[in-house]
Amino acid sequence: MRKWRTIVSGYNDPATNMAIDEAIYEAFREGRVGPTLRIYGWSPPGISLGYFQDIDSVLDIEQCSRHNMLFVRRITGGEAIFHDKEVTYSLVCSPEDLILPKSVKQSFKVLTGFLINAYRELGLDARFFCDSDRHFSDTESTGFCFATSEAYDVCVNGKKLGGNAQKRSRSVIFQHGSIPLDLDFDHASRFFKEDLSPLKKSVTALNDLVGRAVPFEEIQERLIESFKRTFQVEVTREDLSGDEVASMFHRMTDKYSQFFWSTCSREPAVDTDIV
């Protein structure tokens, strides 16, 4: 049985969260750690931008500055996400660790299977959009992640629940995803150039679906247990290694907390897919 480590890192600011994710990714890519599942939250709230996004077309930077709304650019693609009351996961592995297909879309289906199972254990009829009656589109153009629906996004009662993004090379797959507990589109809209209020009809959050305030810690444990059962792996709780902590501080200081990183879009590496 393949061994995975789980990092439960609690709540962090946006720059720290993205720095930790990349530190874990690099440690795995360099063979210093094994496959890893991380669970975390965001405090204070923040906005993460997709790797290729044009920030000027998505965010109202003046409003963000006025209300101290932090934003950071991810190493994964996709659209912007407003992170507030949510549980976030990230994972890094080789295709062989979970016997993943080469297709990006098919790998999304496999990797998000543990989310589907965790939601079903909460009594929800969770499924992929391609298996539901809800229309999905790979070509919708919007700057906000939850506004789009693709084949292997997760939906409950026809509404999208959360979003996922991926970065992969020939030998490493990194994926992270947002699981909203509550959503306040009226509040989030003030920071985006796009009016997000219409999304109330097509997007949902876990607390609304379950009918109660689900504690962060409960979802954290459900995700870990579902991951173990779904992929038949052994999971051990660990802390970040000393090398990862040093790498995290370096990336947080020199990269993710720097205005230039978040405001300037980047070009993809030749051997890397970012979605």
Account of the protein in words:
By secondary structure, the chain is an alpha/beta fold. It has one domain: 2-Layer Sandwich (BirA Bifunctional Protein, domain 2). 32% of the residues lie in helices and 24% in strands. The strands form three sheets. Strands 13-1-2-6-11-10-14 form a seven-stranded mixed sheet, with helices on both faces. A four-stranded mixed sheet has the order 7-8-9-12. α5 (113-121) packs across α8. The chain starts with a strand and ends with a strand.
Write the layout of secondary structure elements.
Elements: E1 3-12, H1 14-29, E2 36-42, E3 46-49, H2 55-58, H3 61-66, E4 70-73, E5 81-83, E6 86-93, H4 104-111, H5 113-121, E7 126-128, E8 154-156, E9 159-161, E10 163-168, E11 173-180, H6 185-189, E12 203-204, H7 206-210, H8 216-231, E13 234-237, H9 242-256, H10 259-263, E14 273-274
Parallel strand pairs: 1-2, 1-13, 3-4, 9-12
Antiparallel strand pairs: 2-6, 3-5, 6-11, 7-8, 8-9, 10-11, 10-14
Q: What features would you highlight for this structure?
A:
275 residues, alpha/beta, BirA Bifunctional Protein, domain 2, 7-stranded mixed beta sheet, 4-stranded mixed beta sheet, 14 strands, 32% helix, globular
